[in-house]
Amino acid sequence: MEYIPASANSQGKILCCECGTPIPPNPASMCVACLRTQVDITEGIPKQVSVHFCKQCERYLQPPATWVQCALESRELLALCLKKLKAPISKVRLIDAGFVWTEPHSKRIKLKLTIQKEVMNGAILQQVFVVEFVIQAQMCDDCHRIEAKDFWKAIVQVRQKTVHKKTFFYLEQLILKHKLHQNTLRIKEIHDGIDFYYASKQHGQKMVDFLQCTVPCRSKASQRLISHDIHSNTYNYKSTFSVEIVPVCKDNVVCLSPRLAQSLGNMNQICVCIRVTNTIHLIDPCTLQMAEVDGSTYWRYPFSSLCDPRQLQEFIVMDIEIIRDQKQGAGAGIRSNRHTLAEVWVKKTSEMNTSLQYHCRTHLGHLLNHGDLVLGFDVANANINNEFVNKMNPHHLPDVVLIKKSYDRSKRQHRRVWRLKELERDREVMDTDNEGQYQDFLEDLEEDEALRKNINIFRDPSKIPVESDTDDEGAPRISLVEMLEDLCISEDATGGEGADMIMS
C-alpha cells in the first residue's frame, strides 16, 4: 500500500500522529503504515470467487443465464471476472486489472487489481491485491439437452423410398461441409431415412430450408401441444418436419411420362439418371439429350426407377462404333458435350458359351473399348411393372441400357488414398448392404468431377499418395490437389506450453 498525497504545495514535514515519523503533510496526518492499520480499502471485496465452466462446450456462465466462449487470459474472460465483482468494486475506483499466470489445469484464475479510495479527511489511498477465481464445473442447458437425448422441441424426418442410399451419402457430406449438424441433439438412422432432433423449432426449420436448396424434395410441418399456461397464455409445442426426397438415385433407369418427356425437348421416355443434386440430371442414351427435373416438376409428373443396382448385370463389349453428326429432332434440348454417342454390341458375361448378343445405343462411347466390362439393365428379359412402359411401343424399347463401365473394385479400394468424414449417429438397424452402397458412392465421386466439387475430401494419412488421375486399368482417381489435410489436435496438446495459443 502506498500513499498518494492530495496536495504537494508545502515542502515541510510533520510528525505522524500515531508513530511520530516525519512525513509530508496530508489530510489524515498519518503515515502509510499507520493508515494501513487503521483503514483497509479492500474491505468488502471478496478475495475468492467461483466461476462456472461447462466442460462439454468450454463456455463460462455469465449470470444470470448466459454462456459465453472465452479463451484463457482474454479480454472477454477479464470482463466476465470483473462483472462478478461489480457490486463490491463499485465503491472504489478501479485503476488497473490484469491476469496473474496460473497453470492451465489448476482450475484457478487470478486477477491482480489496483484500486483507489478516499479515506480519512480526504486522503486518497491506493492498494494492489489479488483475487482468486475458482473454476467449478457445471453443465450448461444446451449440453444437458444433448446428453439427455430425449429433450427435443423439433424433429426433422428425412425419408427416401429407394433401395440405394447414394443420395443420403451425398447429403451427409453436404451437411458436414456446411456444419448443419452442430445444433442437433441427436441423429438417428433408421431403415429408410434419418431423424434429426433439435432443441428449438428455428434450428429444425433451418435444416428443412437447407434440404430444399440441396436435394429435390417436398416437406410437411406439424406440431403437437405439450403444455399450456393459462395465466401467461404461453404454449409449449413439439414440431415435426417431414421431408421426402425424390425416389430416384444416380445410375437409375427411369421412364418418363409422355407429357414430361415432350416438355423436356421431345426426348425419349427411357432415360438414365447421371446425377442428383438440387435437381435430377437425366440423359437420353440414344441421343445424348440432357434435361434437369426439379422437385416441384417431379411431384407434378412423378416417375419411378425401373431397376435398382442389384438388378444390373455385367456385359462385355464385343463391338463398338462411334456415331458422328447425329441429327436432332424438332424442339430438341441441349446435348451433352461430356459424353459420346455410340452403337454397341454386348454379350452377358454369364452367357459367354452362347452366341446371343444385344445391340443398343449408349452415351458411354468415350469410355468403352473392345473387351471392356460394363454394367447395364437387361430391358428385354426384365419383368417391368410400370404404367408408362406398358403403354410404350415395344419397338421403341431398347434391349439393354448401359449404365457405367465396370472396374476391379478391390484394386480401386487398395489404391484409394482419401477418405470422407461421417456423421455421428445412432443406428436402429444394421444394413448389410450399406458397405457395398458406400463403395458405390465413393466410386461415383472418383468418376464424376462435378459431383465432388461440393464435398470435402480428406487425404488418408495411413496410405501413401501417388500423383495420378487414372490407374493402370484406366479407372478414374481423385488427384492430390483436390484433397484436404485433416486437422487433428490431440488432447495432450492442450496441456503444454502451447495451451494458451490453442485455446485462443
From TrEMBL:
The record's subcellular locations are:
Cytoplasm; Nucleus
Q: Where is the 60S ribosomal export protein NMD3 OB-fold domain?
A: 312-405
**What's one Pfam family here?**
OB_NMD3
Question: What keywords tag this UniProt record?
Answer: Cytoplasm, Nucleus, Protein transport, Transport
User: What biological-process GO terms show up in the record?
Assistant: protein transport; ribosomal large subunit export from nucleus
The molecular function terms of the Gene Ontology recorded here are:
ribosomal large subunit binding
Q: Which residues form the Nmd3 N-terminal domain?
A: 16-245
Family matches, as InterPro entries: Nmd3, Nmd3_N, NMD_SH3, OB_NMD3
Give the 60S ribosomal export protein NMD3 SH3 domain ranges: 248-294
Q: Name one GO cellular component term.
A: cytoplasm
Which PANTHER family does this chain map to? 60S RIBOSOMAL EXPORT PROTEIN NMD3, NONSENSE-MEDIATED MRNA DECAY PROTEIN 3
**Per its database record, what is this protein's job?**
Acts as an adapter for the XPO1/CRM1-mediated export of the 60S ribosomal subunit.
Protein family per UniProt = Belongs to the NMD3 family.
Record's protein name: 60S ribosomal export protein NMD3
Q: Which organism is it from?
A: Erpetoichthys calabaricus (Rope fish)
The organism's taxonomy opens as: Eukaryota, Metazoa, Chordata, Craniata, Vertebrata
Originating gene: NMD3
